[in-house]
Amino acid sequence: MNSELQASASERTEQLDQWDREHSWHPFTQMAEYATLPQLHVERGEGCWLWDTEGNRYLDGNASIWTNAHGHNDPEINNALIDQIGKVAHSTYLGLSHPAGAELGKRLCDLAPDSLGRAIFSDNGSNAIEIALKLSFQFWQQIGQPDKRLVVGMENGYHGDTFGAMSVGNSVGFHGRFEPWLFDTLTFAAPECVEVAGDVQQSEMESSLSELEALLSGNAGKVAAVVVEPSIQGPAGMKLQPSGFLKRVESLCRQFEAHLILDEVFVGCGRVGSLFACEGEEISPDFLCLAKGLTAGYLPMAATLTTEDVYAAFLGTVESGSGFYHGHTFTGNPLAARVAIKSLEKLETLLDTGRLDATIRHFGERFEESFRDHPNARSIRQRGLAAAIDLAPTEGNPPWPLNDRVGMQVCIEARNQGLLLRPLLDSILIVPPLVISGEEIDFLFENLVISIDSVMNKICS
User: Fold this and answer.
1) C-alpha closest to that of 261 among 210, 306, 325
2) Closest CA to 435 of 68, 80, 79
3) Are residues 228 and 267 in the same domain?
4) What pLDDT score was predicted for residue 8?
5) Which of 135, 172, 207, 248 would disulfide-bridge 176, Cβ 3.0–4.6 Å?
6) Of 327, 351, 375, which closes a domain?
7) What's the pTM?
């Protein structure tokens, strides 16, 4: 870049910085802290890489908040989107249909467990959960069991930031201050499991399942649904569940006649190595909630899949009031639906060719090699293309004060090494696009080690 163009880019970035500081309010961000940090404006992307307005390149180490599947600027998805734009950008799904919506509903129900034959679209994961909850509550009312109103969730559960989703979660750090406005729910302990590179190093689930059974037994006839993030609790810090746990949860739901709602907003669409996390244990939930990777990081869309039995309970006359009156302006948006169809097509190829399995193996091996003996890695976890490093002082040193923001320091330093990551307090979460190459995985972990060591040296100096 010649000096004149560089000066122009710098001036433009300074202007964007000013507008951002003066007018933006970023989500999940303490803006007083944000104003003190180096700002970064992502301008374009290609493959697993993003470029800022200064021309600097970064590996997208969190898949743009866990959404990107096939890389940025994917030609096939771009073409599918362009083709749909040439037809219609949006047409309401309220009482009307369109080809992309009909095709996507059919495709999702064909790919999902056999029990799931209906798809309701919305705009994001929180809304997918809200829909599942409302469907469950209304279902029990309409079949003559109105006392089934309780929901059971799992410790540290996170299902979104709308009020119903907050109520059935257990994420005090995110939602604790809203507790007075949330409806009452029950919570059972999450199982403990540590896994790296496919090796389960620690697994404990019996006490968790005993708690769930006690809750369901003690509230027989009152529990409408059990809500679980299967396989990995992502926002809790990539907390893993042991093999067999979800099947046992399903069995308890059947025994006590409670709906099973699976929140696959994060783990669905290939993230753990299968199209849906529930596939591995042959689970047939009553509701399956999808978002994030559904549209490969292109457009907002979510889906709540459910059964014909649930659907049938809502059929009747208009006068009966049995219909499901819930929707959004952009429900079933044709652009998002067409992108989702193409993404699912490409996901099937990734799975069928074994490419995703090979990527996950390399990711797990390099992750373990890089951090199993690192003096500041208190705990490491990995499953599929998701991993977490819990950072801590070296043994014998006192804990870091929260305001030291060590995890954030590492992520800021990682930018200098060409990585974009986001911390969860002092944990580093690593969630790359599904198509990341072996060389890019090597780059990611080599430079993350450099970033962590650089910050640790500053702290100790």
Assistant:
1) 306
2) 68
3) yes
4) 86
5) 172
6) 351
7) 0.95
Give me the torsion for CA of 196, 200, 205, 208, rounded to 10°: -10
- The single residue listed with the structure tokens 């709602």 is 261
User: Is the C-alpha dihedral spanning 323, 326, 328, 334 positive or negative?
Assistant: negative
User: Domain for residue 46, yes or no?
Assistant: yes
> Torsion over CA of 213, 217, 219 and 225, rounded to 10 degrees?
50
Residue type, 106: K
Q: Evaluate whether residue 15 is within a structural domain.
A: no
Q: Is residue 270 classed as helix, strand or coil in its secondary structure?
A: coil
pLDDT at residue number 5: 52
Which residues fall within 8 angstroms of residue 250, CB to CB, at 6 or more apart?
Answer: 260, 283, 284, 285
pLDDT at 172: 84
Average of per-residue pLDDT across 211-238: 97
- Please give the single-letter amino acid code of residue 57: R
State residue 2's pLDDT score.
Answer: 58
**Distance between CA atoms of residues 375 and 379, nearest Å:** 10
Residue 7 is assigned to a structural domain of this protein: no
Whole-number Å distance between alpha carbons of 378 and 372: 9
Whether residue 299 contacts residue 338, with contact meaning beta carbons closer than 8 Å, is answered with no
In this structure, which amino acid lies at residue 321?
G
Confidence of residue 228 (pLDDT cuts 50, 70, 90): very high
Read off the pLDDT of residues 141-169 as tens digits, 9 standing for 90 and up: 999 999 999 999 999 999 999 999 999 99
Question: At CA 112, angle to CA 108 and CA 115, rounded to 5?
Answer: 115
Residue 412 and residue 339 share a domain? no
Q: Which residues span the domain enclosing 435?
A: 40-73+353-460
Whether the Cβ atoms of residue 238 and residue 386 lie closer than 8 Å to each other = yes
Residue 417: partners with Cβ closer than 8 Å, 6 or more residues away = 447, 448, 450, 451
- pLDDT over 70, % of the chain: 96
In this model, does residue 376 exceed pLDDT 80?
yes
Please calculate the CA angle 291-297-303 and round it to the nearest 5 degrees: 20
